[in-house]
Design a protein that fits this description.
Layout: H1 9-13, H2 47-69, H3 73-77, E1 83-87, E2 92-95, E3 101-105, E4 109-115, E5 118-119, E6 122-124, H4 125-128, E7 145-148, E8 153-156, E9 170-180, E10 189-197
């Protein structure tokens, strides 16, 4: 006799919508990673985006390198250690005819300027300024190279009374002969550069 509440055996073998299906032993298991999670899907690389990123990266690298090794002005001129600055800068292309030639030497050095083969006389600015000059009054400088011992600078500006009245258009050559104050001019070192007047 069959119990009314017990389903027939054939009903037990039929899967029910409410009963979860069990995995058959022949179904392969999903591989898991070391963390136990399922492996991620492989990301597809967009070639256009990759190329643009590479171009931007190379551009940034070149700009950074340029900023790190870039030198201008006196650094590019390869000035000797005892010369801190010269003006016009070597190989300057746009100097003016009345431009001043300026050399900043290391402290304790003096010298003379030779421009286009002409050695210019050098005057110590401390010898030009006398005690009779009133405060605020302008000191007239001679038409020569002016040496300022406090700053160890040499400067020359072409004037009508100077050996060079102006710089003609074209290339000009400047040589500075310089020596320590406790040396003689015969021990002078030299540095030569050129500039162009427009």
């Amino acid at each position: 006799m069959t119990d009314a509440t017990t389903p027939p055996e054939s009903a037990l073998d039929t899967p029910d919508a409410t009963t979860p299906a069990t995995t058959s032993p022949t179904t392969p298991a999903v591989p898991t990673g070391e963390s136990g999670a399922a492996p991620r899907r492989r990301f597809r690389i967009d070639k256009t985006l990759l190329i643009v990123s590479l171009v931007i990266g190379v551009g940034l690298a070149l700009v950074t390198r340029g900023l790190m090794i870039g030198v201008t002005g006196d650094d590019r001129a390869g000035l000797p250690p005892l010369i801190e600055e010269v003006n016009p800068v070597p190989q300057a292309e746009q100097a003016l005819s009345q431009t001043s030639v300026f050399v900043d030497l290391a402290s304790g050095y003096t010298g003379v300027l030779v421009i286009d083969g002409v050695e210019l006389p050098t005057v110590d600015v401390s010898a030009v300024a006398d005690d009779e000059v009133e405060p605020g009054q302008q000191v007239s400088l001679p038409a020569a190279t002016v040496y300022e011992p406090g700053n160890a600078t040499l400067s020359f500006t072409p004037t009508e009374a100077a050996a060079i009245t102006e710089f003609d258009e074209g290339e000009h050559q400047v040589t500075v002969l310089y020596w320590a104050l406790d040396e003689t001019p015969q021990q002078a070192r030299r540095f030569t550069w050129t500039f162009n007047v427009i």
